[in-house]
Design a protein that fits this description.
Immunoglobulin-like; globular; Cytochrome Bc1 Complex, Chain D, domain 2; six-stranded antiparallel sheet; alpha+beta; seven-stranded mixed sheet; 24% strand
Length: 649
């Protein structure tokens, strides 16, 4: 039975496998803490993304219905609300694909990429068994779940009344007024044109217009009418079987559920095991890394996954010596296992192990921590700030904190409804949004801002917080904001053309190209806890502001596209450059005598992985300062990447 040290190895493997595919973690340089839920070391490989990222023929939602029923409904639910029968067994919430606030932010291309490559960190497998056309069909069906029939029908009426004269009755750009325009109108059914556009992108264009010929419809149409138009435009890009899912014909979730229940779907089985295997034994120990005392009276839950779909759940009690055991466990080849415990309100998990043919034992140790409400040692490795011009009088400020807990205890709220950490917002801030959660749930409102109730586990960069708010703007903005924890570095990104950002601590690092748009990058130094970050923003984008977020939703839904790439690339580039000029002292070097070197061509892939694991353990045991740790780890990862690209062993 092979055990995979997931918290160390999987992030390295994923980054190597998916190089260039924008599958970044917002804290790519950071190792998760012991016990953090990480992606299974599955044998399934992501399907390659070959050819154009748009369908060569219009996708058919009806053809995707049966695929969705088999592959997606067990977790995402028949109506796409994240409430499938297996959703509760997963260690993370399942995205509600059918919710308007989620689907409106998604471009078909991004969902196609997700279906193709999976999302291992969220326990979603890559569906390489599906052809490219089948993947596009299931994406079309998933998108249609958020298009209510009456909304699409209303959009069709508005389109004929407001748009058909120019764009044509069928969206081909051949309306009676098209010839009199100065520009050639696009074919709205063109898959290449709209595959990378979300409903929120379409909403923005319809609302603001497009020079020189398309007028802005803000003020002419209500917000819900513009959303109806976007629903109809998306529906136009689908092909329909005669009598199936006609305009306004959103699929019936009950029929989708019936397909899944009746097994009327052709395709690969959900379970990897095709035959019976001899039962085996899963055992392990629960170790308290805060005080080394064996925990008492805990229940351990064992979860089994076939192709990342939950198939078994067992529960047992922890023994007085801190050990547990499960007997008579079915262990077919390829099944993934992990064990979890709930200790003082925090869920901890083991690494994930993959069963192998002929083996019948498995060891899954779990690390837990004591909790504390003292956050005085909490710090932020980096604070990323992005300035986005919503319109001439509004600037959206997007902030990403990457937090580190250097203690050996989990930081938790002082009580129910109390925040673990609080953030102050500047006067005049409005429309507060979050990437993960809303006010009243994970986040709570405070007198001068908001608080985050999530616990913060030990380790470097173990917690990320992404939020945004809007500020009034009249050619100048004095953005003054107090930081709640010490910040090691600040990275600011702003539209490159026509906008200036000033602060005595910022250094203009020039422009960076992010997905074809130019951003100006500013590098800031450290800030002490309670101090104020003060930015002066002037000017306006001369040629329109690049948009990383669009639409108005309760949640700030920002993927690892332009925003994640911009922040990660900027932050890692500046961080590594800064570390490169800080030499290790003799004491730091002596602590790392047992760690393999980093000279080019001197190590195998396996030895480099071992070196990174050893370095992580050295740092987490408190024997290595952060600066030395981060510098050496960065070098090891760079050499590992080079070795894997060269096909080294």
């Amino acid at each position: 039975m092979q055990i995979y040290r997931i918290r160390h190895i999987v992030p390295l493997l994923i980054s190597a496998i998916l190089l260039g595919a924008c599958s970044f973690s917002l804290a790519e340089d950071i190792t998760p803490p012991p016990g953090a839920v990480q992606a299974p070391a599955e044998s399934i490989q992501p399907a390659p993304l070959s050819g154009p990222l748009y369908p060569l023929v219009p996708p058919n939602p009806e053809d995707g219905r049966a695929i969705y029923a088999e592959k997606c409904a067990p977790c995402h639910g028949a109506s796409g609300m994240g409430d499938g029968e297996r959703a509760a067994q997963l260690p993370n919430p399942v995205p509600a694909l059918g919710a308007e606030q989620v689907a409106r932010q998604a471009a078909p291309e991004s969902w196609y990429t997700m279906v193709t490559q999976g999302n291992l960190e969220r326990f979603m497998p890559p569906f390489s068994s599906l052809s490219a056309d089948e993947r596009w069909d299931v994406v079309a069906y998933a998108l249609s779940l958020s298009l209510p029939p009456e909304v699409v029908a209303r959009g069709a009426e508005l389109y004929q009344a407001e748009c058909a004269d120019c764009h044509g009755a069928g969206g081909k750009g051949d309306g009676p007024q098209a010839a009199s325009l100065t520009t050639v109108l696009p074919d709205l059914i063109d898959q290449e044109l709209l595959a990378d556009k979300s409903a929120a992108d379409l909403f923005q264009v319809i609302s603001a217009g497009a020079a020189p010929d398309m007028p802005a419809f803000t003020g002419q149409l209500a917000e819900d009418e513009i959303w109806a138009l976007t629903a109809y435009l998306r529906d136009l890009t689908f092909t329909r079987d005669q009598g199936d899912l006609a305009v306004g014909g959103t699929p019936d979730p009950a029929e989708t559920a019936a397909l899944a229940e009746d097994g009327a779907v052709q395709g690969t089985p959900l379970a990897a095991a095709e035959g019976k295997t001899a039962p085996g034994t899963v055992s392990g120990s629960v170790v308290n890394l805060s005080n080394q005392e064996p925990p008492q009276a805990l229940e351990v839950t064992l979860l089994g996954y076939d192709q990342m779909v939950p198939v078994i759940t067992h529960t047992t009690s922890l023994q007085p010596d801190g050990k547990y055991i499960f007997t008579d466990v079915e262990m077919p080849d390829g099944r993934a296992f992990l064990a979890t415990v709930d200790y003082k309100g925090t869920i901890y998990t083991s690494d994930i192990a993959i069963a192998q043919a002929g083996a019948d034992t498995l060891d899954l140790p779990i690390s837990i921590y004591e909790s504390t409400t003292d956050t005085s040692k909490l710090s932020a490795d980096r604070l990323h700030i992005f300035l986005e011009f919503v319109d001439a009088s509004t600037v959206r400020v997007i902030e990403l904190y990457i937090l580190s807990n250097p203690t050996n205890m989990v930081m938790v709220p002082a009580g129910d409804g109390q925040p673990t950490i609080s953030f102050k917002l500047p006067p005049g801030a409005a429309n507060l949004q979050f990437q993960d959660g809303v006010l009243g749930e994970r986040f709570v409102q405070t007198a001068d801002g908001f608080g985050d109730t999530a616990s913060i586990r030990p380790g470097v960069g173990t917690s990320e917080l992404l939020f945004a708010f809007e500020m009034p703007y009249d050619r100048k903005l004095e953005l003054v904001q107090q930081v709640p924890v010490p910040v090691n570095a600040v990275v600011v990104l702003a539209p490159e053309d026509g906008v200036n950002v000033k602060d005595e601590s910022l250094v203009d690092e020039g422009t960076r190209d992010v997905q074809g748009a130019q951003y100006r990058l500013y590098d800031g130094g450290s800030i002490s806890a309670g101090a104020e970050l003060s930015l002066t923003v002037t000017g306006r984008p001369a040629s329109g502001s690049p948009q990383l977020t669009t639409g108005s939703t309760t949640n700030l839904v920002v993927g690892l596209g332009a925003f994640g790439l911009a922040l990660v690339v900027a932050g890692v580039w500046l961080y590594r450059r800064r570390r490169a000029v800080e030499p290790l002292d003799e004491e730091d070097e002596s602590r790392m005598e047992g760690v393999p070197g980093v000279e080019p061509n001197a190590e195998s892939v396996e030895s480099l992985m071992d070196a990174i694991i050893a370095l992580d353990d050295l740092y987490q045991s408190g024997q290595l300062p952060e600066s030395a740790y981060l510098e050496r780890r960065s070098k090891l990862k760079e050499h590992l990447k080079d070795k894997m690209e060269q096909g080294g062993e």
